[in-house]
Write a structure and sequence with these properties.
This protein is an alpha/beta fold. It has a single domain (2-253), classed as Vaccinia Virus protein VP39 (Rossmann fold, 3-Layer(aba) Sandwich), CATH 3.40.50. 46% of the residues lie in helices and 20% in strands. It contains twelve helices and nine strands. Helix 4 (55-62) links the parallel strand 1 (45-48) and strand 2. It is globular and about 55 Å long.
Length: 254
């Protein structure tokens, strides 16, 4: 599994550009930081445990948070370190996954971000253990943030002409797993976090149906894009719409 992940992030995906490459993709980032700004206390110690190439780490550090940034993929960590040389504002950078945060003591952080592991862990026990380990290093009353992918939005986004891939998508619907990605549901995420003892603050759709409107959103002028963004912010907490969002974000208190 780890070899597939390395190949994906080193060869198949430009993760460093994903959330800023156009208006449509920026919606996920803008929504996520909007909610971070709502719930995080400025100056807090934050662990970004699935940091990718550091987009949230550097945003939070620039906003005054004390940020430790790590990722399981060496390629991603090397990009974080390069950015740190240019803008040295992170407290610490490390290579490692969320299933083993033994480098940190219990109750070390005011907030812990798990912004990717739940995309990739196929086994339910691994997903549960990832959350458990993140909560171990989180202080009591600290904030836990976890992103996830909605499997039904993945299906909706991948139908081919004439439904030629219908068998493949039905298979994905049944096992929620394809290559390196695991697809979840808002209900599953809520149940997992309830079982872990978290008190939910928000469960939101961070990009809504923007993936279905890509060309329309990207061709919009700034005025209409900002109107769409407001519409998205007004609806991203709607429980009836959560499963349609390609990406979700859970925020809870330990």
């Amino acid at each position: 599994m780890i070899d597939k992940l390395r190949k994906y992030y080193e060869q198949d995906c430009n993760e460093d550009n994903r959330l800023i490459k156009d208006k449509m993709h920026s919606i996920e980032f803008l929504t996520t930081i909007r909610y971070f700004d709502k719930v995080f206390i400025n100056g807090s110690d934050v662990l970004d445990a699935c940091a990718g190439t550091g987009i949230y780490s550097f945003y939070l550090a620039k906003e005054g948070y004390i940020v430790t940034s790590g990722d399981i993929i060496d390629h991603n960590v090397s990009i974080i370190k390069k950015k740190q040389l240019e803008t040295p504002i992170l407290k610490e950078i490390y290579t490692g996954g969320v299933l083993d945060l033994s480098r940190f003591e219990d109750d070390s952080f005011d907030a812990v971000l798990c912004m990717g592991a739940l995309y990739h862990l196929k086994d339910k026990s691994d997903r549960g253990n990832a959350v458990k380990e993140c909560l171990r290093v989180l202080k009591r009353n600290g904030i836990f943030a976890a992103s996830y992918i909605n499997k039904h939005a993945v299906i909706l986004n991948n139908f081919e002409d004439n439904l030629n891939n219908i068998d493949e998508l039905i298979k994905y619907h049944k096992d929620s797993y394809s290559d390196v990605f695991y697809g979840s549901t808002p209900k599953e995420i809520n149940q997992m976090m309830d079982s872990a003892g978290l008190n939910k603050l928000y469960n939101i759709g961070t990009d809504g149906i923007s993936y279905l409107l890509k060309s329309k959103i990207n061709s919009s002028d700034d005025k209409n894009f900002n109107k769409y963004l407001k519409f998205h912010f007004d609806t991203c907490e709607d429980k009836n719409l959560l499963g349609y969002s390609l990406h979700g974000l859970y925020l809870g208190i330990k």
